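In the design runs reported in the main text, the only information available to the sequence generator was the tokenized backbone. The following block is the verbatim input for one such run; it is reproduced so that readers can re-run the procedure and compare outputs position by position.
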């Protein structure tokens, strides 16, 4: 079995030579071409980036952080200190592969890429709140939200512990960091980020967070000129700019992310 090492550029969280030795000790080889499994060593950011671009089954391995705000690696199947046992399980076939649907993101009809976890339209550094609309079309009909706030996140079940779950973490004046809401695999979660105002047009309702069917089509537009940016579909820190009259479309992709799940 061939394993491809997928690490952070510039500052990997472990020495590639050490990882190569661990892979070989488990009776496997290291290589990039036609690899059977991708070993992703890092945090949820790297997991999400590899999840939207790699087609091979991915074994997510996290690194326990000593810092209070270090990587939490919530999607990790194993941690670096358990790497030998995890690799041995893979070598012996003691794992299964789960397939997760991806979302395709377009701007004005042009494909920008896919996301495994989430994509979000958010204000940039030069804006306060942004004004935007969220239009959802599905077999069950169509509706549209108008909102003022920091932005909106559209998430798969793999990304639901991030922005989508921030309301669950509020506990009076404290924070429950381990509380979150799960999005089902056959659904897509939508959550307005710290909104000042929302309205479901034509109903008088004021939605905050909800789940729509997987086969839905989502359109995002800003309704007043602002520094608005699209994040999650690119590695660029400044995201992708979204202007007035731009239409961002999010819909199910034909691509999937294959995640390795270790058996006990």
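Verbatim output:
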């Amino acid at each position: 079995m061939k394993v491809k090492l997928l690490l952070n550029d510039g500052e990997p969280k472990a020495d590639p030579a050490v990882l190569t030795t661990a892979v070989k000790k488990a009776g496997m080889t290291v290589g990039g071409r036609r690899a059977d499994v991708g070993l992703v060593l890092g945090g949820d950011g790297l997991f999400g980036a590899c999840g939207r671009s790699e087609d091979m089954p991915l074994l997510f391995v996290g690194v326990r952080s000593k810092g209070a705000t270090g990587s939490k690696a919530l999607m990790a199947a194993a941690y670096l200190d358990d790497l030998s046992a995890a690799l041995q399980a893979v070598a012996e076939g003691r794992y299964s592969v789960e397939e997760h649907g991806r979302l395709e993101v377009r701007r004005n009809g042009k494909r920008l890429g896919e996301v495994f976890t989430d994509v979000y339209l958010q204000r940039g550094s030069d804006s306060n709140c942004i004004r935007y609309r969220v239009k959802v079309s599905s077999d069950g009909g169509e509706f549209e939200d108008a909102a003022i706030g920091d932005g909106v996140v559209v998430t798969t079940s793999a990304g639901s512990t991030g922005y989508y779950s921030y309301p669950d973490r509020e506990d009076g004046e404290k924070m429950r960091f381990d509380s979150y809401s799960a999005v089902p695999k056959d659904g897509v979660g939508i959550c307005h980020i710290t909104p000042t105002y929302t309205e479901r047009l034509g109903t008088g309702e004021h939605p905050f967070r909800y789940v729509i069917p997987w086969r839905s089509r989502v359109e995002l537009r800003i309704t007043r000129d602002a520094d608005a940016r699209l994040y999650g579909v690119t590695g660029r820190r400044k995201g992708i700019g979204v202007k007035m009259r731009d239409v961002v479309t999010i819909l199910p992709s034909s691509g999937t992310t294959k995640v390795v799940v270790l058996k006990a």
